[in-house]
User: Fold these one by one.
Assistant:
Number 1:
Amino acid sequence: MNKVFASPEAALEGVLFDGMTIMSGGFGLSGNPESLIPVIRDNGVKNLTVISNNAGADGFGLWMLLKSRQVGKMISSYVGENKLFEQQCMDGELELELNPQGTLAERIRAGGAGIPAFYTKTGVGTVVAEGKPVETFEGEEYVRETWLRSDLSIVRAWRADTAGNLQYRKTARNFNPNMATAGKITVVEVEEIVPEGTMDPDNIHTPGIFVDRVIKATINEKRIENLTTRPREAV
Amino acid sequence: MSWSRDEMAARAAIELSNGDYVNLGIGIPTLVANHLQAGVEVILQSENGLLGIGPFPYEEDVDPDLINAGKQTVTELPSSSFFSSADSFSMIRGGHIDVAVLGAIQVDEKGDLANWTIPGKMLKGMGGAMDLVAGVKRIIVLTDLNAKNGEAKFVSECSMPLTGKNVVDMIVTDKCVFTRPDRQSKFRLIELAPGVTESEIADSVTADYDVALTA
């Protein structure tokens, strides 16, 4: 079965609608679906709920959907270093739901795994637990968190075969494999597409069953947020 | 006199044992990796999905697909592994990480920690901090004893939004070290920086603690 589409535009054809929920992979500026986000911007679809660990940075990633005022709500764990986000939150234009990073990841995993709720120790006794059921297991308190699912998950991987089996590269993996499982439709952009049957079955990170559409990335900017190097030792 | 940032990091590093899996927070905690004791090798975990953080890369080896939780470019080691965010927090929440070293806005005498937001200032988010304090076996806080405005940071009760309740095991500051053997016990003042007096500490905190100086 060939899941490859010709372009980012073709891969998102017919799946975008106002008020929808979109999961977008990435941690910081690493592993972001850079080619698919501009298609959502250009489509003009509005009042989106976007689930993503971060909100992009000036001019990059999800920032462009904030700039075009297409996002009504963000569910994230860390939104620092983004002045536009700050402004829209303070102006009340943008609703923000902050989740602890691990709770966010597990809510997405649960969504993909068909588990509507789970209990975690994270956030007990903090604002995160306010209004949520707390239960004691083996003498310790845990708070109930619920699953997250999306109408569309946009994912960045390194490599796919034509059947949608995926491999990620280094820390660009992050939320991508979890989000791939939790979308009604999952669209993936990759740096390389290889024929079905050429990837080692033991080294597939996301099996193709979770993937609906694949495109070759058209944007590979991979911006670095915090370039840190060490000097070469003198010889 | 007080300890420098590097001296504070070196003091925290003494707490790490060979083979520990360790998560270091952003800022001064990151310096702990530079001060490991002789014969001690630890495995550093980065919550974005890397176990076994290598040194910063040479300029020509920079890879945008290889960053730490502070979004700094790093390198991998031959023993490193990469994994998803959900797997990363299974390590953290599931109690598989031995030690986390984190910064603080406030710590109180019951071991509650506030380190993610100051209401009224920009809301950045808690990132992985709440998961770390909930799941990591031992939490060491690395912080100045007083805030820049002079206010106490080791207090009787945190007034800032909490990251976790009763989660702190040790506090290494620029002036002294507090620790406790378990989370039912009171904190004990065990060390002073050179030239710092017991009464100076007493005047700088509002928390109740015992004194058990070792030197």
Number 2:
Amino acid sequence: MPDRLIPSPIPAFGPHLLSLSGMTQERITGILDAAEAFLDVGQQTVKKVPVLRGKTLVNLFYESSTRTRSSFEIAAKRLSADVINVTPSQSSVTKGESLADTVKTIEALGADGIVIRHASSGAAEFVAERVECHVVNGGDGCHEHPTQGLLDLFTIRKKKGRVEGLTVAIVGDILHSRVARSNILGLSAMGAHIRLVAPPTLLPRGIDGWPVEVFDRLDRGIEGADVVMALRLQLERASGGYIPSLAEYSRFYGLSREVLERHAPKAVVLHPGPVNRGVELSGEESWTNDVAILDQVEYGVAVRMAVLYLLMGGGGGESAPPNAATRGEGL
Amino acid sequence: MKESSGGNLLLTNVTLFDPAEGILGGAGPLLVLDGRIAPPGTPAPPGTPELDGRGGILSPGFIDLHAHFREPGFEYKETIASGSRAAAAGGFTSVCVMANTSPVNDNAAVTRAIVDRAREVNLVRVFPIGAVTRGLEGQELSEMGALASAGCVAFSDDGRPVSTALMLRRALEYSRLFGLPVIDHCEDLVLSNRGVMNEGSVSAELGLAGIPNASEEVSIARDLSVLELSGGRLHVAHLSTAGGVRLVREAKRRHLPVTAETCPHYFALTDEAVRCHGTHAKMNPPLRREEDRLAVIDGLRDGTIDVIATDHAPHAPHEKEQEFDRAPFGIIGLETAFALSLDLVREGFLTFSELIYRLSTRPAELFGLPRGSLRTGGLADLVLLDLSGEWEAGRPGYRSKSRNSPFTGRRMKGAVAATILGGRIVYAREQP
């Protein structure tokens, strides 16, 4: 382990990670620096540090998610926490236990932290108001997905060496995207120039105050960008009348090797996944641009380790920073 | 309908305020004999109970044209008894209750049950509003004649808009038989597209589905065009948008038979309140932007908006304490309406006389209720007001069975000191 960083756990951070709203550049930089240290853990043969030994993390996922849930699970296990996955089916939700009762039950079982993924905007804050344990927002409705925002920032920093001053184009369904909202907050805190590229039907009303430039044409929106981030398009947007068809969406907003080469040849290409091939990104195999989608997945684990450590690593004897801890384990 | 008669009461040390009779600041006392206001100068019979008004203002009791008492069917949210207690504490002596009960108030039996129960409770006068369509389903007209005979004072499918322009036409035409108004919850449900709050900068940031102003405006425009065709009387419920105010103003200029109400939350709050009050700031129509709030106040000032109603909509804690998009729409309002409205007077938007007119005299006129004044011989439904009385909303609790209000904990200025129904004191504030 490199002998740097790891800011002191809880005081700098607060008990929960619900949103990137109000996060300063310093705080985000602190998290990214911590993630850098945890990235090294993933390179070890024994990919484990004991900093959350004896702690229990519950992944409470009301929406199906392979990627985010696995990422949190691996992150927590690498920190030696016990992880329980709870995935209430929609049927049991309609049968009746309320979210408030469910999270109180989980807390009573002894959870130290809850990662909540839920279809309702504001659900993570709702949970945080009702439990004493730590809450991490794993994506709430169309509101925020803060760890995705952080891992995107981390990826950009790894690829470009910095975030400040870069031009980042976010392309697609801004209206329904929690990834976009967290990224806009994080990128603007870090001093990036943000462009939103979307058809008018997929752009929220009332964003005049946002620190963004809005484009409705892809070529102009990505022109000269350092980073192009495609958002996932839910396939039901066509039946919902937001776009005429996936084919037309792809024609106007799909990223292809050709359009990237012509307008943003130096751009790193990001996508939160899972990708709809042939919709947000063309299906071709070879790209001249740096397509960093798998890097995002790898970095996501390190970023989530950092977040869980910073939130839950305080208090008690298990809270030594990973460099000290790893020495203790003799890694 | 035979009004229940009341007792005798001498109200001393009060200032009389009655926009209807042009009594604006007259000196008391006021004598009530057998539940009715006695001619000035009548000597009080020996043994008449006396209420010292402590220099407060005595005005006609408030009249709410829009409340939900939830009985029958949803007694866990509110009952006629608890709703009546809340109304009395808020200075209301008459309350019109909406038809979205279970069973729906679309037939005379339900109407009579509500009226009978309210008479047993006997704290406020309750006037049922009948459904426009059977089961509120928007398919067939309810038996408006039977409803009117049983005591309904208006018709509404409130909670939903009248389903189609044709159904509204028929309802407005047919209701002319009885001279009663049709109240519409003006909303284009398709355009609202399952939105849960005002569409604007706050919804964009919170990632909540928005209801655009146009949802209300499109529906009001439809209704006004139909009204021009059908005749009858249209009352627009809970006006919330600048565009809606403009449409009603223009229609009134053209002398269309339209009236309108708004509610205290539309002139006291904006959609920013959703950030800190969550589902307690969720109602339909939603809280709008500042420019809408100011337009609503302007509408009250120039008479485009006739009355202040509460849209008192109780919901149980387990219903409101849910994810924002799952929680039901609506907040309680009877107990906070007066103090919030009085802010408009303090801020110079309305005169005190205009305020009483919009809370009492004008609503009585609209629904043809023979009250809302201090005229000699009239029913002694009165409210005694302490304009400088300070209190905290919802502390220690509400009289309503529910507590879903964004105003809980707010310092209020302007208190109801006593409420008098037919000369009987039905509410008296504990002396602080």
Number 3:
Amino acid sequence: MTVVHFQDVSKKFGRTKALNNATFSIEENKITGLIGRNGAGKTTILNIISGFIQATSEEVKVFSEKPFNSLLVSANSILVDDKMSMPSLNLKGILIEAGRFYEKWDASLAQRLFEYFSFDENQSHDTLSKGKKSTFNMIIGLASRCPLTVFDEPTTGMDEAVRNDFYRALLKDYLAHPRTILLSSHHLNEMEDLLEEVLLIKDGETHLHMPIEDLKNYAIAFKGKAELVKESTKDQSILYQKTHGPDQMYIVSKNTYSEETLQRIKRSGMEISNVTPSEVCVYLTSSSKGGIDDVFS
Amino acid sequence: MFLNTEGTKPIYVQIAEWIETEILNGNFKKDDKVNSQYQLAEMFNINPATAGKGLMILMDENVIYKKRGLGMFVSIDAKKNIINKRKEQTLKRLVQELVLEAKYLDVDEKELLEMIRQANLEGKGEEK
């Protein structure tokens, strides 16, 4: 079943186009990573899905309904980010209110996480540090057990131990209670094992949507003598290239090679290495093939 | 076991290989139930779809079989199938790499065979 469907969705803020004909679908009970550079349109997409803002031109369906002004979407989804508006109560009070709001709320899980991360019941939400606020919001997001759970940059400010705990907690709770989860982050490498699919956004458009395991084989890197490297990648679409010293070159290209071809290239004396999904996303979303070096050359 | 997340091997292949190794070690015997995709996801901290893909590989290679509603079980020929596959694929590839490296270093066939014999002897020494 399709939970989220976008068909040619655009959004303008004044004259700025934040989304430009974005089209994609998200299936039920999958964990999808929403990846993109700063300003690519990730947050805009998540806000439209949650019904917080309305698209300029739209065909948006969430649970088969338009999310804007939809009670169904509101009751079955949660958007966790650093701008969540909380009632002016202490932390304990917020947990109690959240339990009244979300039908599938797991109070016991919330309490156990609350204690594990050493929160003080009497503290107020706006006096929490950046990392603590993210951690508390994450607890709300997990314990709400919403059929559509959306996290926008959930790990902002969290230290490494808490980030690892968060990903582990998310996986364990997902295994026990499968639901549709959308995660946006700049740190694909630290969450890639958790994901089933990756949705890559570039300049407000859907650039790529595929299973994470396919993305791992999407590109391949060659290193060696410049002429050899160029020869083996001449018919391929090149994602990144860099010269090393006088006659060495490093080229990342799309991987459409057969195992035999790769073995042959290897025997001709070139180094072949894999390209991580995180690197692929950086190369695909960068505006030049040489990266920051192009600015200085 | 810890997964090698930096390495060149896809996670689902590593999952399949882990189960294969458990079978070769005798930790899973024929008709034993192997871990479900959800158990594997929890054990290795990965998405259950990835773990499922690892199990699918083993199904295709007749290492495990599915009993509807009950789970995955070790095939009668599991051990034989794994050994055949590893000989055909892994060992063959390693030998090719060995030969290639020897060529780079101008090590001739005789010297290479002598090195293999030596390594074999040392390996036997360790077993005792």
